[in-house]
Amino acid sequence: MKIGILTFHDADNYGAVLQAYALKESIQRINNNWNVQVVDYKMSYIIKNYKLIKINTKNPTILIKSLILTLLTLKTNITKKIKFNRFRNDYMNLSDSVYHKPEDIKEFDSFIIGSDQVWNFDITKGDSIFFLDFCNEKTKKISYAASIGNDKLSLKEINHIKKNINNIDNISVREHSAVNILNKITDKHVHRVLDPTLLADITIWNNVIKQNAKTRNEKYILVYMVSTNEEVLKTAELVSKKKGLKVLLIHDSFKNNKYGFQHLKGIGPVEFVQLIKNAEYIVTNSFHGTTFSIIFNKNFITIPHKVTGSRMNNLLELLNLEKRLINKREDANEIIKFNIDYTLPNMLLKQEKEKSLKFLVESLNKE
């Protein structure tokens, strides 16, 4: 069987590429005779966000500022893009063909949509490829850990999903909130499953890390932000003082480093995983910063993103780790006194893995 995964694989975003790789590996391990590929479908709305040169021509002042910013960050962005492209080529098993139109994608027996926020209207602008409307009736159509991205939807968004959701034969999503939304607009059973990064066996992450010869001998706290958040930075500063450790920071657009953290630039996906595995402590507002902290049983603090934070809340409640969620620095004072006992979270994670794998196995083997 030839299986195609449709997701945001072209995004130079750690979560996007790592979840795509994890899903591909997890499916391949179910049946090694299957040919599992990430469909190299080019989405302009994804690619434009990661262009090396971004010049805003709306007015002369903005034009000059965007030109200066592009020049200042170009070297770092080129380095990062090279690393992301290398990861895609080395690990993802991209489809033999590159596609620009859904109707040209014909040679697969099954399609899996997800993970990532493939049903987030703000990102896709309603691209119906993520509801597999181009497939014929014989093709298996599955969503795995698809995310809507928001807890509240507009009437336009609800109608769009309602119109298309029944194209999918077997539906699974990542958040409780998405289950609740979809249950109101489809009669089909909606499963909640793990993000692929948590589904995948830890050996795949250790094998990826082995390919990177660079290691750090120092102990450190790692901060990863998907958007600038002052409380994340203040919390990292507090943890640093309590633990007596330096702070390494991953954040592409970070400018004012008033805290004196070591700003890491041009970090690729492999380095990202390695930095989390080797950290003494992680402070993050990222969902995948949180998932990889859990994968490697790290002490961490998560400050939920204000818009897409529900998936972090859902995950940590599921694994009995909700005490690691805070909203402001002061909340961290008690948390950092105790290391995480992963006995129960690991047991719960194992149970959730079994449920999620069962969904995949049954969906893919279904006649």
Helix content: 40-55%
Give the radius of gyration. 21 Å
Q: How many separate helices?
A: 14
Instruction: Name the structural class.
Output: alpha/beta
The number of domains: 2
Dominant shape = globular
Features:
Rossmann fold, 2 domains, five-stranded parallel β-sheet
Report a brief summary of the structure.
The protein is α/β, with parallel strands linked by helices. Helices cover 43% and strands 14% of the residues. The protein has a 5-stranded parallel sheet, with helices on one face. A 5-stranded parallel sheet has the order 10-9-8-11-12, with helices on both faces. It has a two-stranded parallel sheet with strand order 6-7.
Question: Would you kindly provide a written description of the structure presented here, covering whatever features stand out?
Answer:
- The protein is α/β, with parallel strands linked by helices and 367 residues long.
- The chain has 2 domains: 2-199 and 352-365, 3-Layer(aba) Sandwich (Rossmann fold), CATH 3.40.50; 213-336, 3-Layer(aba) Sandwich (Rossmann fold), CATH 3.40.50.
- It has helices at residues 14-30, 44-47, 60-91, 121-124, 155-164, 176-183, 196-199, 202-210, 230-243, 269-278, 287-295, 310-318, 332-335, 343-365; strands at 2-6, 35-41, 94-99, 110-113, 140-143, 171-173, 190-192, 220-224, 246-250, 262-264, 281-284, 300-302.
- It is globular, with a radius of gyration of 21 Å.
